Predict the structure of 5-hydroxyisourate hydrolase.
Amino acid sequence: MGLSTHVLDTMHGTPAAGMAVALWATDGTTPRLIKELTLNADGRNPDGLLLDASSLQRGTYRLVFDVAGYFKALGVALPEPNFLGLVSLDFGVADPAAHYHVPLLVSPWSYSTYRGS
């Protein structure tokens, strides 16, 4: 099925359009960058899945969301240093045949995530 993400800006009640995201593989001793992207108007990867079914492997991954950069670009006054800068979510894929959806709900001061469907 593959890997996907979706980010919602809970401060403004909108998708986090324009947020920068990086996907890393974290198996082994050195993380390996898989891709970098900017979320579309719906807060999703403009190319669809982050990894399709043939590319998703059993193992560990990290999604890194540029939360501070996103809110600064919107003109939100943030303290220095920011409370949240980069939000990193580490997760494991046990069944690469399944769909792994990793949503993020975020404001400048909080975030939550879960395994979505």
